C-alpha cells in the first residue's frame, strides 16, 4: 500500500432516480428508487465508491450538501475510516447525530472503506477480517400491497428468479381478513419457501395484537415493524405475546438505537439499515452489540455493500436482496440458488455506469 493512494483529493456526491421494475407499494408508492452515489478521489490511483438511498428526491439536496461538507474537511488527509467517522460524528453534533446527518456520513463512510480496502487490494469483507463466500438471501423485489389475486403468481416469479428459498411480502392491509388471505395466497403458491412479512409500521398496538394473533400460526418467518419503530415498549409487549419473531432495525439511527431496543427486549431479531446505522463503521459497532444479546442480524437493502458486512457479522441471518441499483452498475452482483455471490475484487466490487448516472441524474 502506497501512502499517497490514501490521501484524499476530492469527495463528490451525485443524486440519481432509478426506474423500478415493480413499483413499490406499501405505505407509500414509489415508481423510482432514489440514490446518492459518493466518490472519493485520492492522490494515487485508488477511487472509493459508496451510496445511500434516502427514499425521497426532495431530500437528496440536504444529503449531498452534508456529504460535500464532511468531505471538504478531509481533503489532504489520509483515509482512516473509523477515525474520520468519529471526527465527523462530532462535527454533526449541531445538526444531530441521526437522521440526515448520520445518513450522509454513512455515504462518506462506505466510500472511505471501499477505498481503504482497495488500497490493500482485498475485498471489503476481507479488510473487515472475514473471507469471501456466498451470502444467503431472500428476494424483496415485490409482493407489495397489490391485488390479492396477483400475489400467488408474483410469489412464484420472485422465488424462481434466482431459485430463492425465501421471499418477503408486505402486509398491513385494510382488514385482518385481507392480511390472512394475502399471507395464505403467498404461502400456498410457494410451498417449502420461507416467507417473511413486513407491516411497514402500519398498525396501532391494539390492531397489532389482534392482527398478529390471527396470523401467528400461519407460517410466516417473522413480523417486521408492526408498530411505529420508536414504540419500543409496545414492540416488547407484542414480542412477549407472539410465537412468530418480531423483527426491528431498519429505522435504528446508529448503534445506540439498537442497544436501546435490545435492552427493552423490543424484538427477537434485528435488521440494521446500512444508511441509517452509520455506514460500515456504524454497522460493525452495532452488530458487536447484537452479538452480546445472541441476536440474529439480517440486513436491510443496499445488498452490494451489506453482503460484505454480513460476511463479517456474528450471528448473521438473511441478506435482503433487491435489484434496484443495478441499472447504474457496470457489473451487477450475481445471484445463484438464492445466494448473493460476493465478487472477489478489491473493495466492495461496485463500479458505476457513468452513462446511466447521467441518464438518471437529479438536477438540484
What do these coordinates show?
By secondary structure, this protein is an alpha/beta fold. The protein folds into two domains: 3-121 and 353-359, 2-Layer Sandwich (Enolase-like, domain 1), CATH 3.30.390.10; 127-341, Enolase-like C-terminal domain (TIM Barrel). 38% of the residues lie in helices and 19% in strands. It has helices at residues 60-72, 81-91, 99-119, 124-127, 151-161, 176-189, 205-215, 232-241, 255-263, 274-277, 279-292, 303-311, 354-359; strands spanning 8-25, 29-42, 47-52, 135-139, 166-170, 194-198, 223-224, 246-248, 269-270, 319-321, 334-336, 339-341. α7 (205-215) links the parallel β6 (194-198) and β7. The protein is globular and about 60 Å long.
Strand content: 15-25%
Mind telling me the CATH class of the largest domain? Alpha Beta
How far is it from the N-terminal to the C-terminal residue, by CA?
37 Å
The coarse silhouette is globular
Number of helices: 13
Q: Which fold name fills CATH's third level, the topology of the largest domain?
A: TIM Barrel
Radius of gyration: 20 Å
What is the chain-wise order of helices and strands? EEEHHHHEHEHEHEHEHEHHHEEEH
| Secondary structural class | alpha/beta
- Average pLDDT value? 96
> Helical content, roughly?
25-40%
Strand order of the largest sheet: 5-6-7-8-9
Low-confidence stretches: none
Strand count: 12
Architecture of the largest domain, CATH level 2?
Alpha-Beta Barrel
What do we call the CATH homologous superfamily of the largest domain?
Enolase-like C-terminal domain
| Total number of domains | 2
Note the main sheet.
5 strands, parallel
Amino acid at each position: 500500500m502506497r501512502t499517497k493512494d490514501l490521501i484524499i483529493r476530492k469527495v463528490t456526491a451525485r443524486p440519481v432516480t432509478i426506474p423500478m421494475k415493480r413499483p413499490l407499494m406499501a405505505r407509500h408508492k414509489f415508481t423510482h428508487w432514489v440514490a446518492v452515489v459518493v466518490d472519493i478521489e485520492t492522490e494515487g490511483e485508488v477511487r472509493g465508491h459508496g451510496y445511500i438511498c434516502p427514499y425521497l428526491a426532495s431530500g437528496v439536496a440536504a444529503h449531498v450538501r452534508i456529504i460535500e461538507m464532511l468531505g471538504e474537511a478531509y481533503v489532504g488527509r489520509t483515509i482512516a475510516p473509523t477515525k474520520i467517522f468519529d471526527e465527523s460524528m462530532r462535527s454533526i453534533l449541531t445538526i444531530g447525530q441521526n437522521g440526515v446527518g448520520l445518513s450522509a456520513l454513512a455515504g462518506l463512510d462506505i466510500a472511505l472503506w471501499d477505498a481503504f480496502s482497495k488500497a490493500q487490494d482485498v475485498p471489503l469483507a476481507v479488510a473487515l477480517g472475514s473471507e469471501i463466500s456466498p451470502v444467503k438471501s431472500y428476494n424483496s423485489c415485490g409482493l407489495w400491497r397489490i391485488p390479492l389475486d396477483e400475489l400467488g403468481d408474483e410469489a412464484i416469479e420472485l422465488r424462481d428468479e434466482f431459485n430463492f428459498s425465501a421471499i418477503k411480502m408486505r402486509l398491513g392491509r385494510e382488514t385482518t381478513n385481507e392480511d390472512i388471505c394475502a399471507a395464505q395466497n403467498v404461502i400456498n403458491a410457494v410451498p417449502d419457501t420461507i416467507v417473511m412479512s413486513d407491516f411497514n409500521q402500519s398498525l396501532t398496538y391494539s390492531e397489532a395484537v389482534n392482527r398478529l394473533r390471527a396470523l401467528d400460526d400461519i407460517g410466516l418467518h417473522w413480523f417486521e415493524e408492526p408498530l411505529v419503530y420508536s414504540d419500543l415498549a409496545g414492540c416488547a409487549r407484542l414480542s412477549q405475546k407472539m410465537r412468530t419473531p418480531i423483527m426491528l432495525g431498519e429505522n435504528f439511527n446508529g448503534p445506540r438505537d439498537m442497544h436501546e431496543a435490545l435492552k427493552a427486549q423490543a424484538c427477537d431479531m434485528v435488521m440494521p439499515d446500512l444508511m441509517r446505522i452509520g455506514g460500515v463503521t456504524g454497522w460493525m459497532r452495532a452488530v458487536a452489540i447484537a452479538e452480546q444479546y445472541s441476536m440474529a442480524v439480517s440486513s436491510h437493502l443496499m445488498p452490494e455493500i451489506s453482503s460484505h458486512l454480513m460476511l463479517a457479522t456474528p450471528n448473521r441471518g438473511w441478506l435482503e436482496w433487491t435489484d434496484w441499483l443495478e441499472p447504474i452498475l457496470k457489473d451487477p452482483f450475481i445471484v445463484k440458488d438464492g445466494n448473493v455471490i460476493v465478487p472477489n475484487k478489491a473493495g466492495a466490487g461496485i463500479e458505476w455506469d457513468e452513462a446511466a448516472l447521467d441518464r438518471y441524474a437529479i438536477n438540484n
